[in-house]
């Protein structure tokens, strides 16, 4: 059995190509991947491989093509579902599953493995973690790492990614976190929404009905109010970019003229943005887009209706 496993792994390594690591380091990586198959050695292997994901260029193909590895990572995820509801996740359990999630993020980021990763619908295994609301550190770490996997997908600007995400519940999940998560989780969730909006399909999807648009606009508005009290430049940057992209849709633009928060129209965030030229430029462009825009025709009922 061990010889057969080694043979399968050697084939996977050849498929993945070479890395810039020394021979000794590569042997360690190969051994840790083999050790993922055994529950007795998996925890240490997860820890070591998660440390190496930034320096091993072909780690994702090695993980994907090696026998039983993705199944082992999914087993780590499924094993903690009972601790999610009711919430009883410990710090140790959270750290362990987050190491597995870090390896899945590696797979999600790589050009060769991203498409089969989506076709296998593996991101859906992470959605129960995004549903959690516990404020404890283990759950926050779990949500943030899960968001990191989705964030890695949208960073690639791949149409297949957007198509997949729009077929799932990722937008309402991100909106929930944008409303009630920690600052860092809010930032990643808003970044994901931003990347979806920047895609033409994503913008059309969100602006297709008043319900979708109003939900997004309501959450963004709440975030602006909260940011006026507790400013965060990095979070505000993504919020403004979302508003600017929404203003590219004619019917959304007309609706935003009625519901854009006043805090974005005055100098509330002037000090927060004094060193952020790109966000100031986006905000200026948003204000310009919302000035003197002709109303869309009332005959088109497919998109956002005219506000009363």
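^ structure tokens above, recovered residues below v
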């Amino acid at each position: 059995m061990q010889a057969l496993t080694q043979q399968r792994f050697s084939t996977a390594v050849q498929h993945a190509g070479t890395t810039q690591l020394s021979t000794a380091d590569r042997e360690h990586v190969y051994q840790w991947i083999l050790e993922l198959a055994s529950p007795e050695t998996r925890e240490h292997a997860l820890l070591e491989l998660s440390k190496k994901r930034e320096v091993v260029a072909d780690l994702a193909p090695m993980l994907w093509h090696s026998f039983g590895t993705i199944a082992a990572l999914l087993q780590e995820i499924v094993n903690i579902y009972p601790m999610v509801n009711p919430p009883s996740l410990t710090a140790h359990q959270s750290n362990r599953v987050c190491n597995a999630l870090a390896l899945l993020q590696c797979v999600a980021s790589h050009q060769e493995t991203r498409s089969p990763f989506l076709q296998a619908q593996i991101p859906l295994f992470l959605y129960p973690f995004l549903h959690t609301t516990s404020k404890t550190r283990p759950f926050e770490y779990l949500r943030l790492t899960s968001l990191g996997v989705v964030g890695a997908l949208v960073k690639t600007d791949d149409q297949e990614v957007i198509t997949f995400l729009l077929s799932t519940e990722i937008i309402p999940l991100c909106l929930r976190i944008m409303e009630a998560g920690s600052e860092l989780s809010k930032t990643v969730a808003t970044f994901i929404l931003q990347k979806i909006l920047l895609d033409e399909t994503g913008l059309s999807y969100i602006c297709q009905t008043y319900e979708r648009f109003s939900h997004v606009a309501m959450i963004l508005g709440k975030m602006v109010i909260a940011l006026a009290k507790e400013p965060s430049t990095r979070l505000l940057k993504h919020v403004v970019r979302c508003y600017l992209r929404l203003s590219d849709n004619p019917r959304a633009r007309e609706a935003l003229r009625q519901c854009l928060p006043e805090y974005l129209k005055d100098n509330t965030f002037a000090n927060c943005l004094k060193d952020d030229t790109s966000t100031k430029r986006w905000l200026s462009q948003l204000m310009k887009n919302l000035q003197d825009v002709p109303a869309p025709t009332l005959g088109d009922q497919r998109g956002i209706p005219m506000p009363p």
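DSSP finds 18 helices and no strands in the chain.
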